[in-house]
């Protein structure tokens, strides 16, 4: 039986230097919080693990404040209302929330969004119908702007963002080339209908990519960096667009890479090819495009043109290990931690 | 008396390795060309010298084909019609043309544009009312998109592109910070109304820039690269836009710069600050915006809000030397070679 007087949570115990380790986290048990007026007490069902969390572990200025040492690790969650002090939510409602790495948590009711389990599995609210799906949708359509017949290349293509990018590119009439790590992921991309799927671990990757884009690359959706970017850069066409939403290959770097310094050459390539390189965080596009996304993506899921895969790890205590795997590409599909039972299944 | 049976021209004699030298050019005299049907024979008045010409001397793929070894160096010109075999142009007309580095040349009449000397000095057709002015206008307004109160920083600000960028930024209600080499240029930028003008040769340049942009940089108009870019990059605001139309500091580089490799760090800055870095050549915007530019710029010149300076070198034979100076910032204002008399003065 669940202990409803105690909450379990995972804190940032210390900041990592380079690759994070188990020592950077601490699991603790504390008394159950009590909701105040306008708040709800929530029981976590799914915790979403995402690469951006690595950035939050650093004490560095970025688009969001870092997690403080001693604070609960941040994260999106799907949770069930167990106590409500707001008329808008009832016990048993399932909501999209941002409780972080913990079994229970409180949030003001107006900061969570009630989910309709009839519409789609509630886990998709942190996946294909949530932040990762919207990152793909907004970055590809608002920055990448693929035209019919153009070639779109996406890295980490078996992840929740990349798999949506490639499928939406095809829905818009573009050619989709997906890059992933290992034959199993490559096979799945082929199932999804990617025009070409490539394994970046192959010793012939650079040549494979060249052969896969005979007309060059018009849109490269960047969420990896590293040797994939190195192989893509010479293949970009004039006027190519590069939405940059992640650089997971570099998140654990502690010092600058050895020379030569390729920054001046990159700037010259941007100039001579009239490239657009554009960093973004999906929040920027929420106001203008989130509603359309929800509507369109639900339609594509219903008609089978947008498929997704989830990689579910059981138990909050296994979140750190699962997160380490995410940073090295071990997950296959959207990585979720099942923290508690899903009452909608 | 002018010899009308002979033409003088400057050819690309060999490709430079690094900094170009006099040996890379050859001056020769050849018989005067004879225009065919639909063509005009033109006498060069002004030859425009521009940094992009350095790129044309290389045998490298870029946005335009290189000049072949043994061919006339490329370049925009203001010229007088001396013989016409097309009804649209008469002897004595002055036209914007692209004859390259030569005293006479032929072009199909439909490829040149007749100038109205009453409207503005004809030299401005290759300056503030021509390619450099339009580069400033299109890059700043279509890519930089400065909003009232934002901070626009421009390098090579005493050049024909940079001086227009700063002044147009102010016309649009933005703060303009100009960067140039030496106190004389800095003083001129202050005369033009730049909010701040900085000397990049100053030992305190980095700190001077920091002090000049207390609210950070929203638009950096890049036409230089090098240590100016290094100083600007940490000061860019979230959502800053960087139109890149030139990188003159790097044009003579023959090998990659020594490490560390700053490319991954640049990509991370693009990500965390949601930057837009966008290379461009003004030709891309001609169809949509050239007419508006001509109209608006003429108005700004007339009301004094857009001023310009010309740096005129006498004699075609001095073009190579003047061009070397252009690549190291010796010119002050739009660099022109006066190849022949200007009949409109």
TrEMBL record, chains A, B:
Coiled coil: none annotated. This is NADP-dependent oxidoreductase. One of its GO terms (molecular function) is oxidoreductase activity, acting on the CH-CH group of donors, NAD or NADP as acceptor. It holds the Pfam family ADH_N_2. Gene3D superfamilies: Medium-chain alcohol dehydrogenases, catalytic domain (3.90.180.10), NAD(P)-binding Rossmann-like Domain (3.40.50.720). InterPro entries: ADH-like_C, ADH_N_2, ER, GroES-like_sf, MDR_fam, NAD(P)-bd_dom_sf. SMART domains: PKS_ER.
């Amino acid at each position: 039986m669940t202990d409803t007087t105690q909450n379990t949570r995972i804190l940032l115990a210390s900041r990592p230097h380079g690759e994070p380790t188990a020592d950077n986290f601490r699991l603790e048990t504390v008394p159950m919080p009590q909701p105040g007026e306008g708040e709800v007490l929530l029981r976590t069902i799914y915790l979403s693990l995402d690469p951006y969390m690595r950035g939050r572990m650093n004490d560095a200025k970025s688009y969001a404040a870092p997690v403080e040492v001693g604070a609960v690790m941040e994260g999106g969650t799907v949770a069930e209302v167990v106590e409500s002090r707001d008329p808008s939510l009832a016990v048993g409602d399932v909501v999209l929330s941002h409780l972080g790495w913990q079994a229970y948590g409180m949030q003001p009711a107006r900061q969570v969004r009630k989910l309709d389990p009839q519409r789609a599995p509630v886990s998709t609210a942190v996946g294909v119908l949530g932040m990762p799906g919207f990152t793909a949708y907004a970055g590809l359509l608002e920055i990448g702007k693929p035209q019919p017949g153009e070639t779109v290349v996406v890295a980490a293509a078996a992840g929740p963002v990349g798999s949506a990018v490639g499928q939406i590119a095809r829905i818009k009439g573009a050619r989709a080339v997906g890059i992933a790590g290992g034959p199993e992921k490559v096979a799945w991309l082929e199932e999804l209908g990617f025009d070409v799927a490539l394994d970046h671990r192959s010793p012939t990757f650079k040549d494979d990519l060249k052969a896969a884009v005979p007309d060059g690359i018009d849109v490269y959706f960047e969420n990896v960096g590293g040797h994939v970017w190195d192989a893509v850069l010479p293949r970009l066409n004039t006027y190519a667009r590069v939405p940059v939403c992640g650089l997971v290959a570099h998140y654990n770097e502690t010092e600058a890479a050895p020379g030569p310094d390729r920054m001046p050459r990159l700037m010259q390539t941007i100039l001579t090819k009239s490239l657009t390189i554009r960093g973004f965080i999906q929040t920027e596009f929420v106001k203008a495009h989130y509603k359309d996304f929800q509507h369109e993506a639900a339609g594509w899921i219903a008609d089978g043109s947008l498929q997704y895969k989830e990689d579910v790890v059981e138990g909050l205590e296994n979140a750190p290990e699962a997160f380490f795997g995410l940073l090295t590409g071990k997950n296959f599909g959207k990585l979720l931690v099942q923290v508690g039972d899903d009452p909608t299944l």
